[in-house]
Design brief:
Elements (H helix, E strand, L loop, with lengths): L4 H4 L7 E11 L4 H7 L5 E12 L4 E5 L6 H8 L7 E6 L2 E2 H5 L4 H7 E4 L13 H11 L6 H14 L16 H13 L5 E5 L7 H18 L2 E5 L3 H7 L2 E6 L2 E7 H6 L4 H8 L39 H5 L5 E3 L2 E3 L2 H4 L6
Parallel strand pairs: 3-8, 3-9, 6-7, 7-8
Antiparallel strand pairs: 1-2, 1-4, 4-5, 9-10, 10-12, 11-12
Helix pairs in contact: 6-7, 6-8, 7-8, 8-9
Bound molecules: adenosine-5'-triphosphate, iron/sulfur cluster and magnesium ion.
Length: 343
């Protein structure tokens, strides 16, 4: 099990490090409407100053309700978005500078992404063998046809499928098998870092465990590092070493997995855990999540969680808390800092 990001740094440098990452989207109405209706430009802060680090071979999970910025973080890391502020440093190199340079392809080979919907990310008109072989060709890893076939067979076997499945098309597989195919394809470039955005959320519960176990086996065998996004806390508990809890574009708690589940600090983390039976403590009744995520175009003043927080006071309504370290756990909450929360 890893130690929290802050104390893991001195021994080995992290493989993946987000430093104050931020991304804003311009969601203004078209120019003409703005002029006619005199409406102002509208900017949505999807990710606003997120920092974390992941040691090689470890898993950081990101959790939080819909719209809190998890996928935007994922897309920033793999270079689908450029940050408006901050940096993503991969193995000591500024990733976005590399993505924009001649080194971009080499970096993309080391960092791959797995999406929630495997069907949408697999070309339905291609045979599986061509889908899995595509990165081998794109990255110039293997041009010899016979050796490509061999490698594809090995990749299919590594996700528990048969080499014979290569002749089939994506629609001939179940959801779980399709997600295994997209994992096989992601592994073709022998990446070190996998960014997994809700990889099993679209699957039946019975199939989820199978796919998650395959991912864990691959992690062990290949020393893979994961950023693992999920809104399912049971899945996060199974998969992660560290957990980052996001709320409205910011990290509100970043902790070692065991610490987070046994002693959640932030009121939002506590609310999420209390909503899951068995996680709110032995015999604890499930308490449904209260309230709703505010409109990100009109975020609350001070602590963005204050309209839903049972511990909010005047300071919370006016001053945004920053992420600070308390006994190895990072939390952004005035009440934690003032030691006025119940244990
Ligand atoms: N390309 C975009 N253009 C405009 N707004 C966007 C874009 N992508 C995301 N957003 C907005 O940014 C915020 C964060 O979205 P994001 O998809 O990162 O959240 P999420 O945590 O992944 O949510 P979910 O759990 O629903 O997948 C949301 O308010 C979303 O509407
Ligand atoms: S800063 Fe205040 S409002 Fe925000 S989570 Fe802490 S106690 Fe609640
Ligand atoms: Mg998402």
């Amino acid at each position: 099990m890893s130690t929290p990001a802050a104390s893991a740094a001195p021994t080995t440098p992290p493989l993946a490090e987000a430093i104050d990452l931020a991304r804003t989207f311009d969601v203004s109405p078209p120019w003409l409407n703005r002029v006619i209706e005199r409406s102002p430009r509208r900017l949505l802060r999807a990710v606003d100053g997120v920092s974390f680090s992941i040691a090689r071979g470890k898993t950081l999970a990101l959790v939080g309700e819909s719209g809190c910025g998890k996928s935007t973080v994922a897309r920033l890391l793999v270079g689908l978005y450029r940050p408006g502020r901050g940096r993503f440093v991969f193995d000591g190199v500024d990733a976005h500078a590399a993505y924009a340079s001649a080194d971009g392809l080499a970096l993309r080979r080391r960092i791959q992404m797995i999406f929630q919907d495997p069907y949408a990310s697999l070309n339905p008109r291609w045979r599986v063998s061509d889908i899995v072989a595509e990165p081998l060709r794109e990255h110039g890893i293997e041009s010899d046809r016979a050796r490509q076939v061999e490698r594809v067979a090995g990749l299919l076997r590594s996700v528990g499928m048969s080499a014979d499945d290569g002749v089939k098309y994506p629609h001939q597989f179940s959801g779980g098998q399709r997600q295994r195919l997209s994992i096989a394809r992601a592994l073709a470039t022998e990446p070190e870092f996998l960014v997994c955005d809700e990889p099993t959320s679209a699957l039946d519960v019975s199939v989820q465990a199978q796919v998650l176990n395959i991912m864990q086996d691959l992690q062990r065998e290949r020393g893979l590092t994961f950023l693992f996004i999920s809104h399912n806390l049971a899945v996060v508990r199974h998969m992660s070493d560290q957990v980052g809890v996001m709320y409205l574009g910011r990290l509100v708690e970043l902790a070692d997995k065991r610490e987070l589940f046994e002693r959640p600090r932030h009121p939002y983390t506590r609310m999420l855990l209390a909503a899951v039976p068995k996680m709110g403590g032995a015999g604890a009744a499930r308490v449904p999540v209260q309230g709703e995520v505010p409109n990100p175009l009109d975020p609350p003043t001070g602590c963005a969680f204050h309209p839903r927080c049972p511990h909010a006071d005047a300071r919370c309504r006016s001053e945004a808390p920053t992420l600070r370290e308390f006994a190895g756990v990072r939390v952004a909450c005035h009440a934690v800092e003032e030691a006025r929360l119940p244990a």
